[in-house]
Amino acid sequence: MNARIFVGDTRFDAIAANDRGVAYGDGLFETMRAHRGDVPWWDAHWARLRSGAERLQIELPQASMVRREAVDLLAGDDAILKLIVTRGSGGRGYAPDMDAPATWIVSKHPLPPDSPDSGIAVRWCETRLSVQPRLAGIKHCNRLEQVLARAEWNDPTAIEPYAVEGLMRSAEGDVVCATAANLFVLREGRWLTPPVDRCGVAGICRAWVMGATGAAERRLDVTEVETADAVFLCNAVRGILPVAKLGGRAWPLHPQVVALRDRLAEAHPGFAA
Amino acid sequence: MNARIFVGDTRFDAIAANDRGVAYGDGLFETMRAHRGDVPWWDAHWARLRSGAERLQIELPQASMVRREAVDLLAGDDAILKLIVTRGSGGRGYAPDMDAPATWIVSKHPLPPDSPDSGIAVRWCETRLSVQPRLAGIKHCNRLEQVLARAEWNDPTAIEPYAVEGLMRSAEGDVVCATAANLFVLREGRWLTPPVDRCGVAGICRAWVMGATGAAERRLDVTEVETADAVFLCNAVRGILPVAKLGGRAWPLHPQVVALRDRLAEAHPGFAA
Question: Which pathway does this chain act in (chains A, B) (predicted)?
Fold first, then answer.
């Protein structure tokens, strides 16, 4: 793998056995789309990382050093750049050592395969998102719920094995997001997206879409999603993913979604065809 | 640190940058008290690990190999032995690679300092435990809630800075456990402990105490804890920790707790004075 590992300013070959990232998922991450060696949405990713670090009281490494290493690693390529920042090592059990420098890892991955222009098939996950306002919105490394949800359709006995994403509901029953993407639905001429104040992640592409469409945050139930005029998912790696199929429902590609994809391609050259 | 890292049967010097333990907290752990190089409760720890591995669909390494490495690392000492098992590397994003061998880490740590015989001071944590039946009971590595709760009394502005443990409530308001221990209360001559089917961990020492006392599982509210005739915490590292102080309440050492500590010392020589 193409990765560089640091603790504070010092580069290491691998992660220490007592890193709190491994022990407790005590960290944050960002997954970014790079275009010709640059990360067009770097500032937005770093701002979210900083807000997560404030919430968890993790001291971030120097932004300039992380960016320098990231750009060097990217070496001019189109790729996915992942950044993990953990609380480093040390502390007694759960009690953090407030003076320990963070561990940070930049890694480079191939772009995902293009998804069909006409949209993707999506299923409902059984695994629910627990409600935890102190962790909601930030992109922390406690992701077992997403791992369990995503594993549902590797199960050969599962229905809809062709689904390429799964929608997750909160423990309270409202629809929140996909396992690795945010959700937008068009109803009565207006784009809506679930709030992420009780669970879910405040996606970088979600923020862009909200700005571009004027979408409103609103709690949505299953029926409101299934009876929407159009549905799409989005994230900062794959951009806008129109939903073509969910449960018994099928949607043709909606002209507003096509127009939004074109705007995204202008805003972020990594999403241009 | 005194640690050994393996992926499957192969020993490594450190953890890979793309290990799913670091990325997602996608793993399980056990923390065990060793006595003269042996782990008296090994079988119970392994059984809990196996039940967690079934829940998360993680393939465990060979028990015999793990135990051999653990005993070799312990080298006859009294110590704490920690075992982490992650889902290893690989997969695409959250989707696990079902064929990847697990990463496992055994590490050896000094025994914690003895706590006062008369009991410890405990506080109420503000951080709540979210409700997630699919993860409740098992000792998985998504522990940010415990990290946040434990960090509450490093805050110099926090009340009761002398507290040595903190009690956590679930999002639903019932009292569940301490950040790193289970909870027992004596009411009307009967020992009670909260169930761990919605959040919390099914502790190894908790199971021993339930067997030894005939304690019943019951949801408890704050008042039921504060008005109990006796309260103690327990875990497999520190054994039984009588609670001497909580909020405005103080408890003298209860004779039943003294008797139970004596029984524990007979059952597990690591807890003998």
Answer: Cofactor biosynthesis; tetrahydrofolate biosynthesis; 4-aminobenzoate from chorismate: step 2/2
Cross-chain residue pair B56–A1, CB shorter than 8 Å = no
**Farthest-apart Cα atoms in chain B, separation:** 56
DSSP bridge pairs for A124: A167
Same domain membership, residue B239 and residue B141 = yes
Taking residue A263's Cβ as centre, other Cβ atoms within 10 Å add up to 15
> Cα–chain-centroid distance for residue B166?
14
Q: In this structure, is residue A251 part of a structural domain?
A: yes
CA B60, CA B197: separation in Å to the nearest integer?
23
Q: Say yes or no: A131 and A253 in one domain.
A: yes
Separation between Cα atoms, residue A33 and residue A108, nearest integer Å? 10
- Find chain A residues with C-beta within 8 A of B147's C-beta: 20, 24, 26, 56, 87, 94, 96
Q: Which of A144, A145, A157 to mutate to test the interface with B (most CBs of B within 10 A)?
A: A144
pLDDT value for A235: 98
Residue indicated by tokens 């079988």 = B43
Flag whether B115 is in a domain: no
Q: B66 is in which domain, residue-wise?
A: 2-109
Q: A139 and A93, same structural domain?
A: no
Rounded to an integer, what distance in angstroms lies between the CA atom of residue B30 and that of residue B20? 18
Q: Which of A23, A160, A155, A43 is nearest to A96 (CA)?
A: A23
The answer to whether residues B144 and A24 touch, using CB atoms and an 8 Å cutoff, is: yes
CATH, residue B133: 3.20.10.10
> Residue B21 in contact with residue B84, Cβ under 8 Å?
yes
Residues 6+ positions from A45 with CB-CB distance below 8 Å: A30, A32, A39, A83, A204, A236
The ipTM (two decimal places) reads: 0.95
Lowest mean pLDDT among A152-161, A207-216, A228-237, B216-225: A152-161
Measured N-to-C along each axis, helices B42-56 and B204-213 cross at an angle, to the nearest 10 degrees, of 120
Could you give the number of structural domains in chain A? Answer: 2
Report the C-alpha gap between A217 and B24 in whole angstroms.
27
Query: Is residue B243 predicted with pLDDT exceeding 80?
Result: yes
Read off the pLDDT of each residue in A201-211 and give the average, rounded to a whole number. 98
Confidence class for position B219, pLDDT limits 50, 70, 90: very high
Cα dihedral value A78, B100, B32, B136, nearest 10 = 80
| Residue A170 and residue A250 in one domain | yes
Residues of A in contact with B132 (CB under 8 A): 128, 130, 145, 171
Nearest CA-CA partner of B257 in B236, B234, B273, B237: B234
- State how far residue A189 is from chain B, nearest Cα, in angstroms: 33
B157 φ, ψ to 5°?
-85, -5
Q: Inform me whether the pLDDT recorded for B266 exceeds 60.
A: yes
Read off the amino acid at residue B214: G
Predicted local confidence at residue B97, as pLDDT: 86
pLDDT in tens, A105-159: 999 999 998 888 889 999 999 999 999 999 999 999 999 999 999 999 876 555 5
